[in-house]
Amino acid sequence: MSPDLWSLIWDILQSKLFLELVFIPGIAFIALFTVIVVWAERKILARVMMRYGPLHVGKVAGILQTIADTLKLLFKEFIPPRRAHKAAYYLTPVFVASVPTLALTAIPFSKDWVVFPSDLGLLIAFAVFALSPLLAMITGWACNNRYTVIGSLRVIFQDVAAEIPLLLSALGVVMLSGSFNLVNIVESQRRLWFAFLQPLGALVFFIALIGEIERVPFDIPTAEQELVFGWKTEYGGILFGLLMFGEYITFAAGTLLFVTLYLGGYLGPSFLPPMAWILIKMGILVFLLILIRGAYPRLRIDQLLSIGWKWLIPLAILNVLVTMDLIYFYPWILGG
Amino acid sequence: MSLRKVKRGPKVIKTLNNLIQYVANWARLSSLWSVHFETGCCCVEFMAVSCSRYDWERFGTLPISSPRQNDLLVIEGIVSKKMAKRVKHMYDQLYDPKYVIALGNCSITGALFKESYSIVKGIDKVIPVDVFVPGCPPRPEAQIHALRMLQEKIRKENLESGAIVPKNNSESLEEKTGQKSTHSNKNKKSQEK
Description:
A: 14 helices, B: disordered C terminus
């Protein structure tokens, strides 16, 4: 091959975009996050229930459990149901696993480490979140099974109830920092994290986020005791693996977004690099969410809707009003 | 779904095939996600084995509710002739490779209700069974032993011996536990006698 081609490949390998796409927040980060968090979730949930959890696969604390699960799913067969829409059945898991990764492109891992730096980064993340009910609906409809259809309808109900308070509470952050750019939002938290400046908004955002990423108090679309496995019922083999993969990428994106908006993102004392700080904060949040999964029972769909419409939205609007008031009358609280 | 056995060809391909099969077997035995079909009192013991103190998630099992995602079907308790159709249906809903554990005397032979006109005398007349666990009901330790036996069975599946697994591996479990394996119908009947 000509030296030009070699130098071109070398340039590509050295470029920042390549590093971002391959390592963080790219393929390596997503795969490692899924492997570690699924294992940690099973271990922590087992500890909450006074069990050991995975122990014998991979000698040390069942560390290879997730890898064994993934390999098993790869070697397992999958058959579409007879009356299913075949193309949609095969294609949607690929989209469910790949679309949430777009939300990671907007998250800043340090001041100049963003895949897609944009002045509307926050809106990009929310737009990607808004795509998930559509994919779930297509999945549930394609399987042509009553459980999957009910599950996907519940996804739509739930996402409408969770998405609006999510956007409204993030509006407070936007008003304080004066920008939709996630780097600017993080930089304006240098004095004080927004979680302390507006605790109400942070609380509403946190609860709505659990509903958005379908974690346990609000995992109504996949309620195992009512619907068999919700909109994922008919999937087996690696297609099911892809659906779970997509769920955990959404989990990563949601926690990263909360850290970026309210917990100062990559900011922290300088003895660690900024990338380490955002990952540490994310790890603590993931641990908290897993503990919540172990501690709380699931809500009914009507309870979730009444929480979303009767409490979260008014509280988020109240938060917006209070923030407006603060900015207009007491600008010294916000540091001038 | 088992990998195709290579009958002829160079030794390298045989070894490679064996290696992939070995990895697949390891993955399958380490993550036997289970669903249970409860028709009798044995399911209480099954719950005990899933909970703390006996916890068989240690060996990589995971209770998942949809049969599409499961590998291991545990039949517990008495199965009537009407129910046998549902058992068959349930078995068909699982995707390959799938394994079955028959739990308790009732599902093995019909035990106490053997004389009844409406009882299936042995679930292995309806679906293939990998491991029988006798007992009324079997202790959680016996169920964990059955799981370990199933794992030993999967470890040797579709594998030409000698390439990766040492040849004497087949007797390792029986040596360890001092018990005869109950994999086949033959052994089961001899135990009953």
